[in-house]
Amino acid sequence: MSLTESQLEHIRSRAQAYLEQVVETGIQICAIPAPTGAEGKRAEFVASLFRERGYEPEIDALQNVYVRRKGRHPGPIVMLLAHLDTVFPAETSLNVVREGDILRGPGIGDNSLSVASLLATLDMLDELKLETEGDLLFVADVGEEGLGNLCGARTAVDRFRETLGAVLVIDGSLGYVVHEAVGSKRWRITVKGPGGHSYGAFGTASAIHGLAHLIVGITSLEIPEEPKTTYNVGVIEGGTSVNTIAAEASALLDMRSTDPAALQALADQVQAIVKRTAKDGLQTEITVLGERPAGRRQRTDPLVQLAASTLRWLGMEPRFTSSSTDANIPINYGIPAVCVGVTQGHKAHTVEEWVTISPLGTGLAQVVRLAIEASSLVKK
Predict the structure, then answer these.
(1) pTM exceeds 0.70
(2) Domain Peptidase M20 dimerisation, which positions (predicted)?
């Protein structure tokens, strides 16, 4: 449907009235531990909130939560995705503190308030009796963080791939339009050898020495600045004691790029280094821990332009950017997709995380308008 000026103004004003509801719901969601791979309790809670609204949610084997809101006509659907999981272990204190216009708490912005906004979007559409051309599919998904490998988004998009017209991901910061998907390959590189006594077996190849040589080789690679391509050795492990020649050592490697070809070229170079590094008495192996596909939607893409114009309607100049989000999956499939946020956050992925409350009404108005007009867009 085409929104009138009166409807648009009503959406803006009513979204402000939902601000406290989003805050309260976000705090409730945040209080339930949901480390990647163990999102079940949070999924059940979110499903119960959908039931309170008169909907019948479905929870799949991964713990994705689905609710479908019917549109006027059959045809392409618009999926709204907000991830449930956090980077924090289950034992982390998840207390959220409100200080004026600030909410402090681990996971409050990434991504509890986004999930709360998903629910508020449904509420506003129902309250204002706003129809969409096609169905809207609301999905609170799992496995977005860390080594979750976007498994929740992948499962949801694969399931509805044939009928998907567009995907709106709610994550990140208000004012940004994520239209480029930063792909990644995450490997564990392991070096093994016979080991031995540091003095008595001196000269025996050490797994740690071999790993160190391998890492130096990676850091010597020439990496393109455009498209931006990166690598990082984030964890190294190995050895037994100071006077033992290491029999095993490993490193966790993260490689990223917005361009699939550049990412693969980097992976091929690293693989060659790993093979070369094996000396007499040492063996190397690569274990794939995760892969996130890369890709992009052009700025001229109608959905990207819609997201940008919606921000301008709200008085913000859009900032186009790249990131690794649930949007990677539909973008890689060639399905129109963007990722947008509902407020500004700081210190994400730390226990000192905090967000600003006052922009939430604006962020919610953005999502409501996007959901309605994206549905009309994919019908054309």
Answers:
(1) yes
(2) 182-280
